[in-house]
């Protein structure tokens, strides 16, 4: 996330977006691996987000991950303004904060 914030500050909006999305995806994939969930070869982070939402009943997980997905799309399209990227990065940070205890739990 620190790299995403640096990229945003430097004006590289596409890289800021991808760094933020990557942080969310890697955290979700780690959670899936830790839990021994079957990982699909295609988009395991989406599967993990869905399973975590079901497991915890926390709808914010899905909503926050959608912000990460928007960042991923922006990496390719590069159309979001800096303030929206910053808001999406805030959502990703909130997701990581929620996921931290989950990833460490056994």
- Low-confidence sequence ranges: none
Q: Give me the count of strands.
A: 0
So what's the CATH class?
Mainly Alpha
Number of helices: 5
Query: What is the domain tally?
Result: 1
Estimated radius of gyration:
13 Å
CATH architecture: Up-down Bundle
Distance between the termini: 25 Å
Structural class: mainly alpha
Major pleated sheet: none
Search tags:
106 residues; mainly alpha; Four Helix Bundle (Hemerythrin (Met), subunit A); 5 helices; elongated
Description of the molecule:
This protein has 106 residues and is mostly helical. The protein has a single domain, classed as Four Helix Bundle (Hemerythrin (Met), subunit A). Helix content is 81%, strand content 0%. The protein has five helices and no strands. Helix 1 runs antiparallel to helix 2. The radius of gyration is 13 Å and the shape is elongated.
Summarize this entry quickly.
This protein has helices at residues 2-9, 13-35, 44-56, 59-77, 82-104. By secondary structure, the chain is an all-alpha fold.
Q: Which helices and strands occur, and which strands form pairs?
A:
Layout: H1 2-9, H2 13-35, H3 44-56, H4 59-77, H5 82-104
Helix pairs in contact: 1-2, 2-3, 2-4, 2-5, 3-4, 4-5
